[in-house]
Amino acid sequence: MPNVESQVEENVLNWNERLSSQIVSIPSSGIRVFFDIVAQKKDVISLGVGEPDFVTPQIIVNTAIESLRNGYTHYTGNAGIPSLRNEISNYLKNAYNVDYNPDTEIMITVGVSQGIDIALRSIINPGDGIIYGSPSYVSYSPMIKLAGGIPKTISTKFSENFILKPDEIDNACDSQTKAILLNYPSNPTGSSYQKKDVEKIADAVIKNDLLVVSDEIYADLSYDFAHTAISSFPGMKERTILLGGFSKNFAMTGWRIGFAAGPKEWIKAMLKIHQYSMLCAPTVAQMAAETALKYALHERDKMRDSYARRREFIVTEFNRIGLETLNPDGAFYTFSRIEKTGLTSMEFAQTLLEQENVAVIPGDAFGEEGNGFIRCCYATSIDNIKIAMQRIDRFVNKI
Ligand SMILES: Cc1ncc(COP(=O)(O)O)c(C=O)c1O
User: Fold this and answer.
1) Of ligand 1's atoms, which has the minimum distance to the CA of residue 110?
2) Same topology for domains 4-55+299-398 and 73-296, yes or no?
3) pTM higher than 0.70, yes or no?
4) What is the CB-side half-sphere exposure of residue 376 using CA atoms within 13 A?
């Protein structure tokens, strides 16, 4: 794939001058560059892409096909289909004990990706600071910058299961800090927060008078303890946008559907951006999402149980090989320590791919704190994981 620089050289126009300087300054995703290499190789076992290996459950697919056949091919209202918002309100109440009014406090988004984007754009004034733990999901820093904000990371540590500490939040805040961006269970580390830890974060948020964008896309994929929504604590609902989705829990990454729940003033502001830039989330995907919540929770649970079994296997294998790996609390990623191999994360990932045809993601794609780590996605078949682990074992032993 030609990169932006080489395209610029080939062109008559100087695109570096024509494009927004902010866009020019933002690097392309480290993950994508890697996938381009993987796509050109044969017989690669990929532990790279962060998406379920399952296809969307049939009952959801059938609803979508039916809805198209029945002529649901038009726009919906900007906030999304009322019956889907109703269903999301019930789901949030039943699963996470949080109350949201489906008419004013819930909107349907084009994936959690769009939710993050418009939640940030609707609050950031130029120069506002947004804090978040690092390593983090790759989109956070670029999205904050694109909204005119200043990303400020708080380093989290392997020895502390990569969780944020309240005093670190206090220290990271200054007069420009507007909000904290949370993600638990986390991509890339798989770590999550027990109820008592979420409560401590909530206290720090209130103490520092922050808004919260809480990316809880992996909430339903929590293995060892129940997920606690931060908006369930007193005083938190009024300052939090809770982002949830269908991509990971219902194996619906390609449908591009998610939701945002929060105070009506904030949702109203997000809807302003949404109505001009997106109009509405895809109608067919909204229909499918409603069926997912109404009739496919058991399918979701089966997939979660399957990830849990794979988690056990891969974590045991990594530790047996000698690459220290914490037991992820949720999501479907391991974040393994590779420092002792003497290779950087990128060297490890590149050489492993060249020599053993296994694709993993260098940890520093998720921030500099990820240096010395690799991320593996275990949402792939146990057979694939077995072969991949044999190859990683051989690779590490040869170094
Ligand atoms: C933490 C996190 N947030 C958001 C997303 C994007 O999700 P969606 O497919 O709903 O846009 C991902 C996808 O990998 C993710 O890992």
Assistant:
1) 11
2) no
3) yes
4) 33
For ligand 1, whether the C-beta of 111 sits within 6 Å is: yes
Q: Which atom of ligand 1 is nearest to the CA of 246?
A: 10
Q: How far is the CA of 112 from the centre of ligand 1 (A)?
A: 6
Query: Which class is domain 73-296?
Result: alpha beta
Tens digit of pLDDT at every position of the chain (399 positions)? 455 555 555 558 988 889 998 899 888 776 776 777 778 888 899 998 889 999 999 999 999 999 999 999 999 999 999 999 999 999 999 999 999 999 999 999 999 999 999 999 999 999 999 999 999 999 999 999 999 999 999 999 999 999 999 999 999 999 999 999 999 999 999 999 999 999 999 999 999 999 999 999 999 999 999 999 999 999 999 999 999 999 999 999 999 999 999 999 999 999 999 999 999 999 999 999 999 999 999 999 999 999 999 999 999 999 999 999 999 999 999 999 999 999 999 999 999 999 999 999 999 999 999 999 999 999 999 999 999 999 999 999 998
* Amino acid symbol at 295: Y
Q: Domain 4-55+299-398: which CATH class?
A: alpha beta
Ligand 1 center from residue 50 Cα (angstroms): 9
Q: How far apart are CA 150 and CA 155, in angstroms?
A: 16
Q: Which two tokens stand for residue 351?
A: 């050489």
Give the span between the Cα atoms of 171 and 180, in whole angstroms: 13
Neighbours of 88 (CB within 10 A): 24
